Input
Amino acid sequence: MNNRPMLEIVSLQKRFGENLILRDINLKVARGELVFIIGPSGSGKSTMLRCCNRLEEPSEGDIILDGRNIMSGTSRDLDQMRLKVGMVFQGFHLYPHMSVLKNVTLAQRKALGRSADEANARAMDMLDRVGLAEKANAMPSELSGGQQQRVAIARSLALDPLVMLFDEPTSALDPELVGSVLAVMKDLKSKGMTMLVVSHEMEFARETADRVVFMDGGVIVEEGAPEEIFGAPKADRTRAFLSRVRR
Amino acid sequence: MQSITDQFFNLTIMAKTLPLMLSGLWMTAQLCAAVILLGLVGGLLVALANISPRAWLRIPSIVFTDIFRALPPLVLLIFIYSGLPFAGVEISPFAAVALAFLLNNSSYYAEVYRAGILSVGKGQWEAARSTGLTKAQTLSSVVLPQAIRNVLPDLLSNTVEVVKLTSLASVVSLSELLYNANMARSITYNASPLVLAALIYLVILWPVVRLVSRFQRKLAA
Output
């Protein structure tokens, strides 16, 4: 088993016009590690996550995925790389004109080149894993938000990613639906998936995260084990943020 | 009263000129098939250029849509059919109509497609691209199916306009429905063939117009 990081963010900078959104971010995520990112809105945490599969184009710096720099290479390489980085969005973004099953098979067929049988079998496995095998033929509009998000997770998992990125996966959900999505994420973690999670679910972070990263103003202010960050934060900014979200 | 019926609703004359009208209708149908297909395909290409991040594609396509929406289609048609021969370019009536309509319609269809593509949220693009789909795959499998569904009433009502506009082809002596009706009128000294042509257009297009209204109401609901 090699111990080089699964994902490494090196000197990442992101500028929008004059605004420097990310200033020199460095972060290593080990295999099977769940890194949980917290911070006030506008701190750059979502932007950082979106730079990891170049949905947002970094202004400077490198993103190393399993030893390969995703900043170099052709657009074909970029598409291949994106297959290996699963992404789950706040707004689910299922394809509304396709059944649940087709949502999960589309990229398997088109981007991975799997046969219909292979893709269907894999999709059913993944839907089973998120507890929605019986909804395979439903349309997304017939599902609750929590169910849609779990299908979105299955859609990414079906491509056998090395890393899963979660961008506020439960923020758009009614409170009673949050648990089912977090349970799926917890299960993923226990099966050894490497995960980078931007979220406000502090309770989940405390129980599941290996490491918590606090970002503010485009920099990583502090990082450490959940008990350190939540129990004894060193930086004033971290303390101030945590007292605000706890209230 | 008798004379109005004789002049406009003369069934004997309508029956006698029916074969001529039907052959005109057949030409109109062929013309519609050609110009609708050209417009749908040309419009899609122009729309894609229109939303392209590449300036060398986007700017010419914007100029194209602006010019051909501003230019009266009849002016365009007569120029292509009667003007171009002065430059040594002889063109058949059918080809002239097809070309004029391609230029005119694709700019209108392009605007409809563009609105449809823009109505599909950025999240759909991002979700698809994040799973490794290329831009072309994202467009064809994810964005366009939704875009077209969102603007189906507008595509349909634009198509109604296109069908009506094919009657312009009569000015370049293409023997479509209106041309043949007008010819029948001059042969019989009677307006009934023109009334018959109008009725044929109505019978064909009325249901489509109804359908558009129903779609629009359904989408608005």
Summary: The first strand of chain A starts at residue 7 and ends at 16. The first helix of chain A runs from residue 45 to 51. Chain A touches chain B at residues 53, 55, 75, 79-80, 82-83, 85-87, 89, 91, 93-97, 106-107, 110-112, 152, 155-156, 159 (CB under 8 Å).
